Hints:
Low-confidence stretches: none
Distance between the termini: 133 Å
Strand content: 15-25%
Structural class: alpha+beta
Number of strands: 10
Helix content: 25-40%
Shape: rod-shaped
Strand order of the largest sheet: 7-6-5-1-9-10
Order of helices and strands: EEEEEEEEEHEHH
Amino acid sequence: MSVCLWIRKLQSSLYPSPFAYSHYEIFMTDDGYYNRLFGSTSLDNTLTSKFTTPIGTWFNYCSTWSLASRTFRVYVNGGLVGSQTTASGRRLQTGQKLVLGNYYARSGHRFGGEMFNFNMFSKELTATEVATISSGGLCAEIPEQLEEYRVIKWEEILKLSRSGTVYDTDTRCAPFLELQSRLKVVENGATVTQGKLKVAVTEKSSLEVSLNRTQTELLNVQGLFNSTQEELVAVRGELGTTEGELNETKLELEETKLELKNVT
Length: 264
């Protein structure tokens, strides 16, 4: 389980809570005084020196945990600021209420500020994944490889009914998101072009192999042709020799014929 969001405090108040799940099951305050999981108080008032972002400035908060690791970790702006070990076998309660902007409905821990891109994940994010979310900045989208783990999504939260004093504000992310969308189109086009280039290179390599094979076959044919020519020359020489021998035989027969005539 992991929770990440962007927080911008606009006023100081007593234990302001940007979000809480089932009261103390998961609970944090934007001043760092409370960072609780399963109601444990071991981190109470130990991390306030890490939550020093000035009022009016956005900062990124993430907390992570899993049954396997049994370690609750708290991150501010991508850096680990605190951790605690949880009891063996303790699981997160399901079916409870998640409250944004307070500890619970009509509680005195009202959050006075802005929040953006609250998401809950079904996996324990790694330190690298948390750092990536933070370094991307306020307007960055959730990394594509983490999309399948988002079980509570900010864009779906915005569609829910609300109570209390809640306003929608402009984070000025629209131009950035539009540019990011265009960049994705360009990147996809570049990927397609790279794919075509790879196919062309592969086809070129195949053609070169075929050409080399054809050249080798031509050299073999030329070798055979040269050998055949040499054999023909040899045969022609043998034919010349045979023709000379036939002429000599013919002369000898004529001489024999004359001798027989004289004898007669």
